[in-house]
Amino acid sequence: MTSITHGDTYSGNTSLDTVSTKHVYQLEGDNLKNFVGSDGILKLYNTSEMMTLEMVQSAAEYWNTLAGTKIVEIVRTQAESDETIRDSDTNGIMVNGKITYPLGGQTYNGEGILFYPNHWHLDETTLPDAFKNNWKEATLIHGIGHALGIPHLGGGADGANAIRDNVLGTEFMSSWAVGVHGSPLENINGVKSSKIDAAALAMAGLTWEKPKKLASWLFSEEDTCVVYNNGNIASSVPYGVELDFKGNYIQAKQIVDQYLLMGEKNYNVYRVTDDVLENRHFERVSNYTTTKNLNINNKIIHVIGYYPSTKGNPYYRVEVENQEYVINSAVFVDKVRI
Predict the structure, then answer these.
(1) Which residue of 5, 54, 312, 332 is surrounded by the most CB atoms within 10 Å?
(2) Of 61, 2, 25, nearest to 212 (Cα)?
(3) What CA–CA distance (Å, rounded) separates 218 from 199?
(4) How many C-beta atoms lie closer than 10 Å to residue 311's C-beta?
(5) Contact 155, 161 (CB under 8 A)
């Protein structure tokens, strides 16, 4: 993953390479802070008028889709939250003796994820409403990315090369804009995730108080992305449970109730949670044991579920001594009758 996040002059973050040797997610030698709760979910409360509830919910869906599981949740009260999204009426802030006009971002002093309406001048432009909306959403997604523990991803040791050099790109965790001089044409199609985003998120998830394996589709799907465009989210991120080999997913279950003879060959046995399918999340599952270890070869087995797979044989959910497992249908002499 560090080879992915390394990036180039204006993408990625070279200091993230240290995670492969120090096994801690760092930025320029310091452990990177995040606001994710002990349950492995970043709970956000929104008081911002600039970033509407609909926009905040879309940003949460964006990160959840990229992760392949739920990692961001919008809650109804501040007491439930890990962090708050809010507006500031500030007009210019002092940074290192200079007045600056940031659009917004994660603070680390207890003020939450702040946005500065007085620093935005989109309404004074002739940009299409969709462009204005996407620009705001990109900034919101960016701020939540920091709360998840992801640094800037615009190149160099701190990921801020692009920001310092005023280089606009497609990377929303860097310097993103649309419809203005220097902004990439690709940005007119919306806020698009990169492979670097997924890799940085995956590394961040491993360092949370409750570590999570995220974006585990990363090495199976080369051109996968999530795109936000004017309130709509499109995704090529796979969903389902990946079994046996890369790119082979089960995505839906049909309930059956049949007793079938299993053959003599030894096959992998998996433990699969159907919630992953129902929520359209993603999980790569390693084999739990084998059919020979369970001593179920050449026996009549109770089959209670049928899963088509995307690239191979169907899989069966079986019940053995009050435990449920998922096994490749190829091991069965008899086949499920649909």
Answers:
(1) 5
(2) 25
(3) 7
(4) 10
(5) yes
100-133: per-residue pLDDT in tens?
A: 888 999 998 899 999 999 999 999 999 999 999 9
Give the strand order in the sheet containing 254-261: 254-261, 300-307, 315-320, 323-328, 268-270, 289-290
Kindly state the average pLDDT of the residues 169-176: 97
What is the phi/psi pair of residue 173, to 5°? -85, 15
- In whole angstroms, give the CA distance from residue 190 to residue 269: 42
What spatial distance separates the first Cα and last Cα of the chain, rounded to whole Å? 42
Chain-centroid distance of CA 91 in Å reads: 33
Measuring CA to CA, which residue among 47, 121, 109 is closest to residue 84?
A: 47
Distance CA(114)–CA(279), nearest Å, equals 31
Query: Would you say 24 and 15 are in contact if contact means Cβ atoms under 8 Å apart?
Result: no
Token reading at 237:
């991120």
Could you tell me the domains of the chain? 2-235 (3.40.390.10), 240-331 (no CATH)
The answer to whether the pTM exceeds 0.85 is yes
